[in-house]
Design a protein that fits this description.
alpha/beta, 6-stranded mixed beta sheet, 14 strands
Length: 345
């Protein structure tokens, strides 16, 4: 499956790349905050001081926390009002949150959907009210603009790394655990990509345990039980860093970290630090740093608010982070003061 690249149309409306600091979209005057706290701009044709709200599945998930934090900082630089809430992976709660945003007549709603199937009606209602719907990470049926990833391809890349690890260290034969998240269709697709690649490239590997969670504490409990039931397990694949970090804790607590491999998606600061410390996390599939994704998500939403002509779907790039390129990625993402590489071999 081929990934689409961010098209030139969208790049043209953003004068500064997601890899740099915040800037002003092309053709627009910079939105400033005046001395009395009110937003002001030289562009009288566009509304200023946009109110943008973001509802996400779970802010205890480290990658979501990183993204939301940076989106808030970027919104402040653009002179926008920004608010983020967690629905705790409860689709009915998320619908209620969106209903509240509609009643408040906000300008845009950013959504990290807990259950895409539950949001069709409320998103249509918001769009009928003139509210921009920006979808991040998970595609919906009704939306204005999206920033999404090729989740199957991302999963395949993790499955390939897991297969490589087992082939090189265990002659292609090992018991494997899978941490997926069935409540989310995109995460399910990501997990299927992992299994398909592992099956193709390492047929002697067998997934003997699997669970559905994106929370570290829950994953830790699952993996503790797995290691008792399957003491010969040598690898775990996780659709996110919540699961990967929890698995890492369980494997270390069981004293099985030597020769064990954990392969996860997200590339959060916490997971990368564990990798740098020589923990069982051996590879991370990242869509970019948390701050990159948060800044880009806000800018994509802002584009839909301020431009008449934009690309509806923006696809996130992916990169694999391993011991070999970890130092380079830490420098590229500006994490030198957040990740200690002194133990990196």
């Amino acid at each position: 499956m081929k990934r689409k690249l961010m098209t030139l149309g969208l790049i043209a409306v953003m004068t500064i790349s997601v890899l740099t600091g915040c800037g002003t979209p092309a053709g627009k005057e910079s939105t400033q905050t005046t001395g009395n706290g009110e937003a002001g701009t030289a562009d009288t044709d566009k509304k200023v001081g946009y109110t943008i709200c973001w509802t996400v599945g779970d802010l205890s998930n480290p990658i979501w926390a990183e993204k939301v934090d940076q989106a808030k900082k970027t919104a402040e630089e653009y002179g926008c009002n920004f608010e983020a809430v967690s629905c705790d992976n409860d689709s009915s709660k998320q619908v209620a949150q969106i209903e509240s945003f509609i009643e408040r007549k906000v300008d845009a709603i950013m959504i990290g959907a807990a259950d895409p199937n539950a949001l069709d009606d409320v998103c249509k209602k918001a769009m009928d009210a003139g509210i921009v719907i920006m979808v991040e990470g998970i595609k919906l049926n009704n939306y204005t603009i999206s920033m999404i990833a090729d989740n199957y391809e991302a999963g395949k890349m993790i499955g390939e790394e897991t297969a490589k690890f087992i082939n090189e260290n265990y002659d292609g034969v090992a018991e494997v655990g899978l941490i997926t998240y069935y409540e989310n269709n995109e995460c399910t697709i990501r997990g299927q990509g992992m299994v398909d690649a592992l099956t193709e490239l390492c047929p002697g590997a067998k997934v003997v345990q699997e669970c559905s969670t994106c929370v570290a504490d829950e994953a830790m409990t699952y993996v503790e039980n797995w290691l008792q039931a399957n003491p010969d397990m040598k690898a775990i694949m996780s659709i996110g860093d919540g699961g990967g970090i929890g698995a890492n804790q369980a494997v270390k607590a069981a004293g099985k970290d030597e020769g064990f491999g954990i392969f996860a998606v997200d590339g959060t600061v916490e997971a990368l630090q564990l990798m740098a410390d020589g923990d069982p996390i051996r590879a991370e599939l990242s869509f970019g740093s948390g701050w990159q994704l948060g800044e880009q998500a806000f800018k994509v939403c802002y584009t839909a608010l301020t431009e008449d002509d934009f690309d509806k779907d923006v696809y996130e790039e992916v990169c694999l982070v391993t011991y070999d390129n970890l130092k380079d990625k830490v420098e590229e993402w500006g994490y030198e003061d957040r990740i200690d590489l002194s133990n990196l071999k």
